[in-house]
């Protein structure tokens, strides 16, 4: 007896496309490449320039590599011929390739063009560039979701992708690009503000954890406290960040004036201290809420068993409750860290410094490259923090349940 | 070993445990049973002070439990609950080592003890040692739970419906295993359940509770033949009282000498066993329902009895194979005697 191995669901289904998200992204990328400028060229830093399309900016081999990778992705989106598992792998590799080609081409174009122009001329990335980078990132994220891949593979992919982009930067490939020239001008200040940004985030997270975790424990132990505690913290969260920074100016400068010693420590209306206080206030709710939720999620039977075995209250907390609540607590930390990295940008408005300083300075000067020099590192920082803490959440679960 | 004296637990004005006094002797397997809300679990948890009692006294090994810090007391008393009580973030070995670690045993002694317990519960195969609780089957998880309770070799073991969440087949195996472990270790066990069959199977004494009060505290057989009142009779289940009684009896109590013959000549007695040279039964002569007395039925491995088998099971086999007698065999398969349908009626204590 012969058995047909044609999968019936495939044979019966008229659908040609298996991955509609990818098809949408590919269409968007192609449309952008065709209709939008890939780069712009301007005579100097502030003047607006003329636009350059993809066909004009890319060399012949770059364009063919671009189209070839695009075609590979298009095939991977189809139901056939690639089996699903393989298709996800192909999408991951091809989208990384496409991202690198896009980045490389832009730098290459800047190098080729500026050799023959005046030193003040500038080449910047156009909107098609951004759309294509965005589409590549989304295609990779989507492929990871579909493959429901393990954490080790995700970590490896992120390291390879991040590493290759970093290497392109380090090799000076982008040095002729407008934004990198801007960076060269402010290199020292950039390093300072970058560190300030990290210090602000760090000094907000420390107190937030030190205050928030005990408050979460308290809320778990004393049911009656919960209502008041959470409504106060929720109230903080509803104040817009700029308003909160502004609100803190008056009381803190009064405090700084009344007690000169505090003033010497930096307690005044503007600067780092009010910024940190505001960041802590925002960070408290997620920390407290996730600590509370994590502890509440520990099965009562497990706690009862721990007590029944003869653990003291402290042993129950440290050996059973906290380890079991840790994944949820760490996802709270993840929310708070990403949130603080973003909010610290606003803190530049009250003179706390950080990457936000470039953004506001750039906005004032109408220098878009300066704005990007503040914005892009902030985004990269947030993505790295998010990814790292996500990995920690996974690692904090028992080995066999990790995904 | 354990003495409850006028034990009472009040929540506001309701007395969930009301003036219970009973003594559990050393090595006894005491089952607390009753309808839900009767106070059996509360009573159990008062013994290791997970719940504080309102009135009365509890003595464990002669000491009033309130004279010890609760943690010290609990480390002396094994405690097992349903499998969800295992620590999900610890491996099987770590779970079992919980109390020895709290008692700060040296690690070599802990490792030896863990291996010993894994062997006792037949958990030593398959690398279970390093598995996490969610990787275990229901039955394995329960065994780990009981092993954990026994880890520090406590004299007393408290068990709160430990087999409540497993399927009937697994529960059967676990009960047999617990009975074996109880025989081997001689621990004093207090066991809470709402399942009468479980209670009758395991208990050496049953405490039947209702609405916080102790209704009857007796040996299982006494509970069956001399129920204190209608509540007890109803709770045991009137309909199959007789079968329940038989489930408590073992075949050896009913076993009587068998008539043997070496050839298949028609025997003088109504039931005669044809045996081979090694005294192994080969066939039953007569004794088949609905047939003439001269019927010869070849003994098959299914319709035999062993001395340890419950009479309920022996009776069930007689009914199923339509015979009025089963051969009782020893470990080597030799004929020890027989149990018969009419013999079932004969014995009553």
H/E series of chain A: HHEEHHHEHHHHHHHHHHHH
CATH superfamily of the largest domain in chain B: P-loop containing nucleotide triphosphate hydrolases
How large is the radius of gyration of chain B?
24 Å
| Classification by helices and strands of chain A | mainly alpha
CATH class of the largest domain in chain B: Alpha Beta
Give the fraction of residues assigned to helices of chain B. 25-40%
Protein described:
The complex is a heterodimer of chains A (403) and B (349). Chain A is mostly helical and 403 residues long. Chain A folds into 2 domains: 8-184, no CATH class; 187-401, Orthogonal Bundle (MetI-like fold). Chain A is built from 17 helices and 3 strands. Chain A has helices at residues 8-12, 20-35, 54-57, 60-77, 84-114, 127-147, 151-170, 178-185, 187-221, 223-238, 241-258, 260-264, 272-296, 300-308, 313-347, 356-365, 368-395; strands spanning 39-42, 50-52, 122-125. In chain A, strands 2-1-3 form a 3-stranded antiparallel beta sheet. In chain A, strand 1 and strand 2 (50-52) form a beta hairpin. Chain A is flat. Residues 1-12 of chain A have low confidence and may be disordered. Chain B has 349 residues and is α/β, with parallel strands linked by helices. Chain B has 2 domains: 2-248, 3-Layer(aba) Sandwich (Rossmann fold); 252-346, CBS-domain, CATH 3.10.580.10. Chain B has helices spanning 40-47, 70-76, 92-96, 98-102, 107-120, 138-150, 168-185, 196-202, 220-225, 230-236, 241-248, 251-254, 311-321, 341-346, and strands at 2-11, 14-24, 29-33, 55-60, 63-64, 77-80, 156-160, 188-193, 205-210, 213-218, 260-261, 272-275, 281-285, 296-298, 325-329, 335-340. In chain B, the strands form 4 sheets. In chain B, strands 6-7-8-3-9-10 form a 6-stranded mixed beta sheet, with helices on both faces. In chain B, a hairpin with a 5-residue loop joins strand 15 (325-329) and strand 16 (335-340). In chain B, helix 5 (107-120) packs across helix 6 and helix 6 runs parallel beside helix 7 (168-185). Chain B starts with a strand and ends with a helix.
């Amino acid at each position: 007896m012969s058995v047909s191995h044609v999968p019936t669901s495939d044979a019966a289904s008229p659908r040609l496309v298996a991955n509609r998200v990818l098809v949408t992204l590919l269409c968007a990328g192609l449309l952008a490449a065709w209709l939008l400028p890939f780069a712009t060229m301007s005579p100097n830093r502030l003047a607006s320039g003329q636009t350059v399309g993809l066909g004009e900016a890319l060399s012949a081999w770059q364009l063919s590599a671009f189209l070839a990778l695009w075609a590979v992705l298009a095939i991977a989106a189809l139901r056939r011929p690639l089996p699903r598992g393989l298709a996800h792998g192909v999408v991951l590799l091809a989208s990384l390739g496409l991202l690198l080609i896009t980045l490389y081409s832009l730098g290459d174009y800047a190098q080729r063009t500026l050799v023959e122009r005046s030193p003040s001329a500038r080449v910047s990335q156009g909107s098609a560039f951004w759309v294509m980078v965005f589409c590549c990132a989304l295609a990779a994220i989507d492929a990871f979701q579909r493959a429901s891949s393990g954490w080790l593979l995700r970590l490896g992919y992120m390291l390879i992708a991040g590493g290759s982009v970093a290497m392109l930067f380090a090799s000076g490939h982008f040095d002729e690009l407008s934004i990198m020239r801007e960076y060269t001008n402010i290199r020292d200040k950039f390093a300072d503000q970058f560190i300030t940004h990290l210090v602000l985030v760090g000094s907000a997270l420390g107190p937030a954890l030190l205050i928030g975790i005990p408050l979460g424990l308290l809320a778990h132990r004393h049911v009656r406290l919960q209502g008041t505690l959470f409504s106060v913290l929720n109230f903080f969260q509803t104040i817009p960040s700029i308003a909160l920074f502004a609100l803190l100016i008056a009381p803190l400068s009064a405090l700084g004036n009344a007690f000169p010693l505090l003033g010497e420590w930096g307690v005044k209306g503007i600067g780092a201290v009010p910024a940190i206080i505001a960041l802590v206030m925002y960070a408290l709710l997620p920390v407290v809420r996730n600590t509370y939720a994590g502890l509440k999620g520990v099965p009562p039977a497990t706690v009862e068993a721990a007590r029944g075995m003869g653990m003291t209250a402290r042993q129950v907390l440290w050996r059973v409750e906290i380890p079991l609540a840790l994944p949820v607590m760490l996802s709270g930390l993840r929310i708070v860290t990403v949130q603080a990295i973003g909010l610290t940008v606003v803190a530049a408005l009250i003179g706390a410094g950080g990457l936000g300083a470039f953004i506001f300075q750039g906005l004032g000067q109408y220098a878009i490259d300066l704005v990007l020099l503040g914005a892009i590192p902030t985004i990269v920082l947030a993505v790295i923090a998010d990814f790292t803490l996500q990995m920690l959440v996974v690692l904090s679960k028992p080995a066999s349940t990790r995904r | 070993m354990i003495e409850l004296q006028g034990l009472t637990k009040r929540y506001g004005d309701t007395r969930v445990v009301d003036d219970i006094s009973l003594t559990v002797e050393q090595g006894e397997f005491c089952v607390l049973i009753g309808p839900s809300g009767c106070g059996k679990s509360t009573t159990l948890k008062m013994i290791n002070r997970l719940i504080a009692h309102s009135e009365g006294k509890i003595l464990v090994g002669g000491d009033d439990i309130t004279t010890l810090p609760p943690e010290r007391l609990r480390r002396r008393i094994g405690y097992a609950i349903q499998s969800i009580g295992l620590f999900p973030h610890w491996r099987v070995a770590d779970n079992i080592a919980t109390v020895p670690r709290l008692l700060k045993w040296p690690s070599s002694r802990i490792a030896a003890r863990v291996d010993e317990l894994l062997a006792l519960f037949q958990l030593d195969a398959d690398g279970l040692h390093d598995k996490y609780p969610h990787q275990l089957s229901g039955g394995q998880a329960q065994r780990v739970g009981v092993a954990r309770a026994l880890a520090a070799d406590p004299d007393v073991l408290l068990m709160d419906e430990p087999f409540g969440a497993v399927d009937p087949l697994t529960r059967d195996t676990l009960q047999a295993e617990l009975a074996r472990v109880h025989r081997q270790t001689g621990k004093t066990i207090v066991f809470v359940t709402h399942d009468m069959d479980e209670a009758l199977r395991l208990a050496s004494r049953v405490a039947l509770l209702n609405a916080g009060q102790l209704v009857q505290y007796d040996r299982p057989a006494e509970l069956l033949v001399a129920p204190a009142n209608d509540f007890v009779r109803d709770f045991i289940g009137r309909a199959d009282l007789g079968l329940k009684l038989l489930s408590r009896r073992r075949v050896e109590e009913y076993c009587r000498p068998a008539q043997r013959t070496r050839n298949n000549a028609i025997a003088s007695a109504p039931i005669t066993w044809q045996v081979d040279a090694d005294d192994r039964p080969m066939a039953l002569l007569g004794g088949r329902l609905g047939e003439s007395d001269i019927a010869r039925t070849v003994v098959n491995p299914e319709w035999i009895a062993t001395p340890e088998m419950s009479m309920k099971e022996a009776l069930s086999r007689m009914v199923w194979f339509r015979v009025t007698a089963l051969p009782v065999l020893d470990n080597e398969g030799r004929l020890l005697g027989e149990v018969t349908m009419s013999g079932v009626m004969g014995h009553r204590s």
